């Protein structure tokens, strides 16, 4: 029977995940003594996922050591990445005291809490009670965040802070993050400084100040802050991530790779292997890319977190280093595990086409290329499209390759990574002389559309300007430059002519699309701010 203190625990539903039946039953009994009677048990990660797919749990208690293929951390990574956990679920990771430090410091996805063995009912109750108190206190804020109402979340932070000062550090962290995402850098900076005034050891607040500098273009100042953090804590992996972002903003690809290598040394996870592999591939270090993708495969072999992209990326590197036979073998093995993945077959055929061409089997190469083109269905602004163009060049189909590449770049001419990869494809296939004709001309074509629409708008030809951009979006729906321009010009039209609800819906649609294409972009945040300012202005005038 639940005590008065823990009476609210009786309403919770729990899942215990442990490969040892005796341990599962022990935790189940302790939960029962706390009043938690609805308890399911899973002995394997797969069983746990089946339960989680069909039932909403309030508490999940998972042992770190589950089996050889998948540990508790990998399972949590899978649940978070697949968005299988309820936003209100509490996930506790159970570890032995001897392994706590290594497990906690190497956590790519943080659980709500770590609990060190041996577990007791008192320990479990204390953790649950504290998290329930925290979730209840911050609920008005999290409700706003779930609705993507960042301005509302900031207002709730100020309100909740007055009545729940106990959670000031959590509230300041949330408020600063929301302000930074909205582009309110001064507000974010004040919150980070306020947090540091309470506790000087808050590393996330120091990195927050660096992010403020980064957003304002003060990249050297941001870099100095991050390096200062790493001098005191070389294990803080988020600092390496931010250092890599700053280096990428400065076009320092080699420094990006160095930062990601250091982060991998701290957390040798599959995700970080992929990041290292991608960065190494961009700078042309194929041997390091091969090693990184190979490690990613080894990290996830037989695990729930295995991804088809690891084998595909590894196969592409083998083609590039002249080991086409190895590439085909990797693709054949991967097909056994990922044949149901909708994106696998298309990219598999693209890489196979290159491999066959390298082996001199042009008939098989062209057959694979045609299959890849059919599976791709449309030419999009992504890396798969550029590898399709690469396959065409490898097969001697230069006009086809040029057409595919030009259309991809026109679809997103402001995507620096895409453009850099296009240049690399041309260089790798011996077509470096075509860079100006294909890449530069395609970039110019995209920029000309935006320039022409802007000119029409400045001349007062609003309808013609918007029609120009709508026409461009019909042809290249994922072009970030055109989407940003379309959002801006629709807002300028309303600031001149008044409210048009259909235009507001369009702008919100453009920005939602940009959120997916350019996550955490300062340019998109500014456009959201412009939208709010325009609506306020129009309302006042009305």
TrEMBL record:
Superkingdom of origin organism: Bacteria
Keywords: Phosphoprotein
SMART domains: REC, TPR
Presence of the UniProt keyword Phosphoprotein in the record: yes
Keyword Phosphoprotein: yes
4-aspartylphosphate: modified positions: 63
InterPro entries reported for this sequence: CheY-like_superfamily (IPR011006), Sig_transdc_resp-reg_receiver (IPR001789), ST_Response_Regulator (IPR052048), TPR-like_helical_dom_sf (IPR011990), TPR_rpt (IPR019734)
GO BP term, example: phosphorelay signal transduction system
PROSITE patterns in the cross-refs: RESPONSE_REGULATORY (PS50110)
UniProt domain Response regulatory: residue ranges: 13-132
Pfam family, one: Response_reg
Protein name (Swiss-Prot/TrEMBL): Response regulator receiver protein
Species this protein is from: Herminiimonas arsenicoxydans
UniProt lineage: Bacteria, Pseudomonadati, Pseudomonadota, Betaproteobacteria, Burkholderiales
């Amino acid at each position: 029977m639940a005590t008065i203190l823990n009476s609210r625990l009786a309403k919770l539903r729990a899942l215990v995940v442990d490969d040892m039946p005796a341990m599962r039953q022990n935790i189940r009994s302790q939960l029962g003594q706390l009043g938690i009677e609805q308890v399911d048990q899973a002995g394997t990660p797969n069983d746990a996922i089946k339960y989680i797919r069909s039932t909403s749990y309030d508490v999940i208690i998972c042992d770190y050591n589950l089996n050889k293929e998948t540990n508790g951390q990998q399972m949590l990574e899978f649940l978070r990445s697949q968005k299988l956990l309820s936003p209100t679920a509490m996930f506790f990771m159970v570890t032995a005291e001897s392994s706590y430090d290594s497990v906690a410091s190497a956590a790519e996805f943080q659980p709500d809490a770590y609990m060190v063995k041996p577990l007791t009912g008192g320990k479990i109750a204390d953790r649950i009670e504290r998290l329930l108190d925290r979730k209840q206190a911050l609920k008005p804020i999290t409700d706003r965040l779930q609705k993507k109402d960042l301005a509302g979340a900031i207002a709730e932070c100020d309100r909740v802070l007055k009545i729940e000062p106990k959670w000031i550090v959590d509230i300041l962290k949330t408020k600063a993050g929301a302000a930074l995402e909205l582009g309110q850098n001064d507000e974010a900076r004040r919150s980070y400084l306020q947090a540091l005034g309470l506790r000087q050891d808050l590393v996330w607040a120091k990195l927050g100040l660096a992010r403020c500098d980064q957003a304002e273009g003060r990249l050297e100042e941001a870099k100095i802050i991050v390096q200062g953090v790493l001098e005191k804590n070389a294990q803080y992996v988020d600092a390496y991530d931010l250092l890599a972002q700053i280096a990428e903003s400065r076009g320092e690809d080699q420094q990006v790779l160095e930062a990601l290598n250091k982060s991998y040394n701290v957390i040798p996870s599959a995700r970080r292997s992929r990041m290292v592999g991608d960065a190494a591939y961009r700078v042309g270090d194929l041997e390091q890319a091969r090693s990184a993708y190979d490690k990613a495969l080894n990290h996830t072999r037989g695990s729930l977190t295995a991804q088809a992209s690891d084998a595909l990326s590894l196969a592409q590197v083998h083609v590039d280093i002249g080991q086409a036979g190895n590439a085909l073998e990797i693709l054949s093995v991967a097909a056994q595990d990922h044949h149901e993945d909708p994106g696998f077959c298309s990219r598999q055929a693209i890489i196979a086409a290159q491999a066959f061409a390298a082996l001199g089997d042009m008939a098989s190469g062209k057959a694979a290329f045609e299959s890849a083109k059919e599976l791709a269905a449309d030419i999009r602004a992504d890396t798969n499209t550029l590898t399709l163009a690469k396959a065409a060049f490898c097969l001697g189909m230069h006009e086809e390759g040029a057409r595919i590449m030009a259309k991809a770049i026109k679809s997103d001419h402001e995507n620096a990574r895409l453009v850099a990869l296009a240049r690399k494809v041309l260089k790798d296939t011996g077509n470096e002389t075509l860079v100006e004709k294909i890449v530069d001309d395609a970039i110019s074509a995209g920029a000309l559309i935006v320039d022409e629409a802007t000119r029409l708008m400045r001349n007062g030809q609003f309808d013609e300007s918007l029609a120009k951009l709508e026409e461009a979006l019909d042809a290249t729906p994922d072009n970030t430059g055109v989407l940003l321009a379309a959002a801006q010009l629709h807002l300028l039209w309303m600031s001149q002519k008044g409210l048009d609800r259909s235009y507001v819906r369009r702008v919100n649609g453009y920005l939602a699309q940009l959120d997916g294409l350019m996550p955490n972009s300062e340019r998109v945040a500014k456009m959201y701010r412009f939208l709010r300012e325009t609506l306020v202005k129009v309302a006042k005038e009305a």
